[in-house]
Write a structure and sequence with these properties.
Elements: H1 7-15, E1 29-31, H2 33-38, E2 43-48, H3 59-67, H4 69-73, E3 78-83, H5 88-99, E4 103-109, H6 119-126, E5 130-134, H7 139-152, E6 157-159, H8 165-185, E7 192-197, H9 201-211, E8 217-222, H10 229-247, E9 259-260, H11 274-287, H12 296-308, E10 317-322
Parallel strand pairs: 2-10, 3-4, 3-6, 4-5, 7-8, 7-10, 8-9
Antiparallel strand pairs: 1-2
Length: 340
């Protein structure tokens, strides 16, 4: 694979971008020998982005260091997010708003996990967010109305779901450099990276690897079944190319640059599959590692399935990116496949 830029050169371009320091970064890279042994290999290293340090951590804290810099520069006074009732991004939006001295406004969808008030929804109230519970078919309209009202009142709201989104991809270009440095110090050459694939972390990792000329399998397990593999990969390529433009990188990613496996997501967003339930139990009982049933549990289910298919041997190494989501577990007490 052709190298487009050196690591020092890429670090220099990242350093030129505005950034708000929020999290406990770099995050640890943990060995999981009992999990690896239970699966018959390979060696599995966990990149602990669930330990970014703010309100139970998670990947959004890393992303917000770049994507919220424009909000600070523009003098915004409200951080807003609209998502599911158990949204990790909503929780982290509320937490970071407090750290930045801003007000948080959350539009939460009335769904299967909006009552009772527990998990991330409980934390929103603890964090002092202004929470608006709305029906799913009204959510987009309610958000637009609320943004208009806030602006009419003289506020400067910032939508963490959409504004500055490309910088969330860039955050994981930086995250790749961090991870690669940790692996190099251990003299480890990984055979693959697995992660839950939304829009930004996967795109950022793939962009960094291609820019540096590193031939590495990066496997994404999407958390929603709205797209097939090809469509999801096209979306990732679009986001990666926007980030490449901002970084001034002379390259283009295509859908073929992304490996995605939608089949592990199950019938819908937020539905815990049997494979996901098993993966959560396995990680918890071998390593004390807590995964969630919406995101990381499904990503681990994909890795477990691929190991059992014989895609990796004992002498290989796989990195699993733990993107967080821990509080969601507390809203899924009847859906984790436990005999309780």
């Amino acid at each position: 694979m052709k190298q487009v830029i050196t690591e020092p050169g890429l670090k220099t371009r990242l350093a030129e971008l505005p950034r708000v320091r929020l999290g406990a970064i770099p995050t640890p890279l943990d060995d999981t020998p009992r999990l690896s042994e239970a699966l018959g290999g390979p060696r599995i290293l966990i990149k602990r982005d669930d330990l970014t340090g703010v309100a139970f951590g998670g990947n959004k804290i890393r992303e917000f260091e770049y994507s919220l810099a424009p909000a600070v520069e523009q003098g915004c006074d409200i951080l807003l997010n609209s998502a599911a009732a158990q949204s990790n991004q909503s929780r982290q939006t509320a937490a970071v708003a407090g750290k930045l001295g801003m007000r948080s406004v959350i539009i939460a969808r009335q769904d299967a996990h909006s009552t009772p008030v527990q998990g991330n929804l409980l934390l929103l109230h603890l964090l002092g967010a202004e929470v608006h519970m709305v029906k799913g078919d009204r959510q987009k309209e309610e958000k637009e109305d609320l943004l208009k009202q806030l602006r009419a009142q003289g506020h400067r709201p910032y939508d963490t779901g959409y504004e500055g989104a490309v910088y969330r991809t860039i955050a994981y270009v930086n995250g790749f450099l961090e991870l690669w440095d940790q692996l190099r110090r251990r003299e480890v050459q990984p055979d693959a990276i697995y992660l839950c694939s939304g829009a930004h972390a996967h795109a950022g990792l793939a962009l960094a690897a291609k820019a540096l000329g590193i031939d590495l399998r990066i496997v994404g397990i999407p958390y929603g079944a709205r797209r097939d593999d090809k469509e999801h990969a096209c979306r990732l390529a679009t986001g990666a190319n926007k980030a490449a433009d901002i970084l001034g990188l002379d390259l283009r990613l295509e859908s073929e640059d992304f490996e995605c496996h939608v089949k592990f997501t199950g019938p819908a967003y937020g539905v815990a599959t049997e494979g996901c339930q098993e993966a959560i139990r396995l990680a918890a009982r071998t390593e004390g590692l807590i995964l969630d049933p919406v995101y990381t549990g499904k990503a681990m289910a994909g890795l477990v399935a691929h190991i059992r298919e014989g895609q990796f041997s004992r002498n290989q190494t796989v990195v699993f990116l733990h993107t967080g989501g821990t509080p969601i577990v507390f809203a899924y007490n009847t859906e984790l496949g436990l005999d309780i």
